[in-house]
Write a structure and sequence with these properties.
6 helices, mainly alpha, 94 residues, single chain
Length: 94
């Protein structure tokens, strides 16, 4: 099996996302942040396969650092940002 075939199979696997609260594919998780993976991807998928090893093979060192080096925002900050974004969208709509 080639690495591309392996990635096709891995991308189709699904697991419950603690961030979104529903099932998502590994393919979604590894592209959730633009072209970068969600910062939780290694932890969320470690019970199924060695996600860190797969991601290290796919990402450059710079991409790895961009995805996993900074600490995630506290949940309260994320919620406040989402509320502000919703207020902005609501006031901009006719």
């Amino acid at each position: 099996m080639t690495f591309e075939q392996l990635m096709e199979k891995l991308d189709a696997l699904e697991a419950r996302c603690p961030k979104l609260g529903h099932q998502v594919s590994f393919g979604y998780c590894r592209r959730e942040n633009g072209n970068l993976p969600c910062s939780r991807t290694p932890a969320c998928w470690q019970h199924r396969f060695h996600a860190e090893a797969v991601l290290r093979r796919l990402l450059t060192p710079e991409e790895w650092d961009a995805a996993f080096s900074k600490a995630p925002k506290p949940r309260v900050d994320s919620l406040l940002e989402a509320i502000e974004a919703a207020k902005t969208r609501r006031s901009a709509s006719p």
